[in-house]
Amino acid sequence: xxxxxxxxxxxxxxxxxxxxxxxxxxxxxxxxxxxxxxxxxxxxxxxxxxxxxxxxxxxxxxxxxxxxxxxxxxxxxxxxxxxxxxxxxxxxxxxxxxxxxxxxxxxxxxxxxxxxxxxxxxxxxxxxxxxxxxxxxxxxxxxxxxxxxxxxxxxxxxxxxxxxxxxxxxxxxxxxxxxxxxxxx
Length: 185
Prior knowledge:
185 residues; coiled coil; 0% strand; Retrotransposon gag domain-containing protein
């Protein structure tokens, strides 16, 4: 068998494989189309039955009560988890904005906040009694005591005092960093 004949045979085999794949896809497509027709028929039958019951007076058309009040039609934004390794004050400010966008009550804020706590931040919950776990103010006070920026004042003063512009740092970035340190210190 020559090299050309081998190549022809390989091409012929590849074409045959492609034809088989196409045939399998076409068969699958026909099955899906048949299933779709069955579903359409079932939906039409269900609608006919509903209309028959409504017109016969066996049922009345009533609006279903929403699962949540209108203000819960959808969460606008979701807070990210807090593990205690970043600034509590910044996280708390973002959490408050998200709560305001979602129109959460204080109890809802407490539930969402406790579900977002991780690692050492979640360990704070062990020190609260069960009734305090629904008290947003008590939860945030405990977190502020442990993770708030207030205990960092001395450290921030030292960082501010020692802060110098880095070799490749532009003036705008340096000014922003100094301003941020000064504000937090």
